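REVIEWER CHECKLIST
Item 1: Sequence provided? yes
Item 2: Single chain? yes
Item 3: Sequence as submitted:
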Amino acid sequence: MPWADDGGSSWNAYKCAPVDPDPVGPGEVCVSEHPVSGVDNCEKASMCWEVDGETNEGICIAFCMGTNQEDATCEPGFDCTINGGGVLILCLPRCDPLAQDCPGDDLCIPSGEKFICALDASGEAGFYGDPCEYANACKSGLYCLNPEYVEGCQAAGCCTPFCDTSKPLNCPGATQECIPWYEEGIEPPGYEDVGICGVPQ
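Item 4: Structure as written out by the authors:
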């Protein structure tokens, strides 16, 4: 199981952990000893994800399956997402960035060629034009882009909204356009109209 072996708040190692005698499956509410303990009541090949630091409750998420990272697979509707230096290999729900249709307060952000649901780490910030460092550091419907795409951005990245390329321009920046997320002809099915508000380069 992934856990934090240094007493920190990020998963950085693996350990063997007991399987709960009455485990719960992916998509069900689970309980963990603490957010990065590696000990929870999820069934084998899954872990308790987005654990609340006060209640220690989260949702069971399945691990990707396969013999290596290159051929890792998930159930339909989920994509394999690898984080934490390769320690976290999770099947996270696929989503629509224009609809922001993730459960709860999760964000719909890019991961490889698709979009997946991820924990909202924006806190009190993450609005349009706010500086950001991580993909999940902006509010729902926004994403952290390089500074040249966001007017007045003086940081390594700033938040800017997704947009629909098939609809009239509705970007907050005066010089921004709705830039297609994918190159023409390689859009995955269902993502043909996904764009991001940015200053053309």
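Item 5: Key structural point noted by reviewer: The first strand starts at residue 2 and ends at 3.
Item 6: Recommendation: ____
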